[in-house]
Amino acid sequence: MANRTGLPIYSATYSNVPVYEFNLEGNHVMRRRQDDWINATHILKVANLDKPARTRILEREVQKGIHEKVQGGYGKYQDPYQFIPEFLFSGTWVPLHEGRLLAERNGVLGKLLPFFDFVPGPISPPQAPKHQTAASNKGPKVPKPKKVALHSHGMFEE
């Protein structure tokens, strides 16, 4: 789905960090607004590389240069009524130029070019739509009914 710019670029905030988010065929690529760094892990996911291949490229190529690793997880961000996808913010972040080179080396620069070429203007892109994940599709957890036994003398027991 595209926003008013005609591109699937949105504004979002994860872990109190404002980002631009590019939705490409269900892959969400993040670019920090404060410094224009991009998530290299997300670029490699767009390239359809499995986790071992992504880890190998990140360790052998990306993390030898200027980068920042952000650890993530769901735990403290889960709410039984709404899933907040803070885990999307985790990964290895690199300057935009380095991310562009990584995308080119892995054959996805053409797909990501609108995001690399995006120049923020005075009006921010709209808020990102809620993410659909396995956790968010489950809905709120409904407690199981307690088993109750009825004794011969008419008393209930939990």
- Globally, the shape reads globular
Terminus-to-terminus distance: 51 Å
Tell me the Rg in angstroms: 21 Å
Number of helices: 5
**Which class of secondary structure composition applies to the elements?**
alpha+beta
Rounded average pLDDT: 78
Helical amount among residues, as a percent range? 25-40%
How would you sum up the major sheet?
3 strands, antiparallel
Number of strands: 10
Order of helices and strands: EEEEHHEEEEHHHEE
Q: In percent, how much strand structure appears in the residues? A: 15-25%
Please mark out the parts with pLDDT under 50 across 5 or more consecutive residues, or reply none: 74-84, 132-142, 146-151
- Please state how the strands of the largest beta sheet are arranged side by side: 1-2-3
Short characterization:
With 158 residues, this protein is α+β, with helices and mostly antiparallel strands. Helices cover 25% and strands 25% of the residues.
